[in-house]
User: Which sequence fits this backbone?
């Protein structure tokens, strides 16, 4: 995991971050109060976004990354290249294990992951870049 500054990122990566920040505003998280936004870039160059959507029965909760992936799949594409995840955390902000496994399902090459931490004023505090292979080595990917 590498800490980076905004000016080290490409235009497309900044676009992803902006889309993830915007969609985070739609997160429905009345139970955890923990809003997450995600925006991914598919192999065709299209962006798909997602936010977390909670339910009184916590098992029904959709994670932001999963919603973004589902949006890509319903558009007809099954191959993601890069994803930005935005949340407000006291440590770094990484996708959970379930989301990592779902990324394995819908990617062919290693996925680039941009993790954005917001401060208490909802401004970008820290940006980390990593990859799916770093976060989920030896992933289960074959039946
Ligand atoms: N959450 C995500 O949206 N993505 C993750 O990978 C980690 C967790 C959401 C689920 C729940 O609504 C809230 O964050 C707290 O766990
Ligand atoms: Zn998750």
Assistant:
């Amino acid at each position: 995991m590498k800490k980076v500054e905004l000016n080290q990122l490409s235009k497309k990566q900044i676009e992803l971050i902006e889309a993830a920040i915007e969609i985070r505003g739609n997160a429905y998280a009345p139970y955890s109060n923990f809003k997450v936004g995600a925006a991914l870039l598919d192999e065709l160059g299209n962006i798909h976004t997602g936010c977390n959507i909670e339910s009184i029965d916590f098992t029904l909760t959709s994670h932001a990354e999963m919603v973004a992936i589902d949006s890509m799949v319903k558009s007809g594409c099954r191959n993601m290249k890069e994803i930005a995840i935005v949340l407000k955390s006291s440590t770094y902000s990484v996708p959970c294990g379930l989301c990592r496994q779902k990324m394995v399902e819908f990617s062919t090459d290693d996925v680039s992951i941009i993790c954005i931490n917001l401060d208490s004023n909802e401004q970008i505090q820290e940006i980390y870049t990593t990859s799916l292979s770093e976060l989920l080595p030896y992933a289960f990917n074959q039946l």
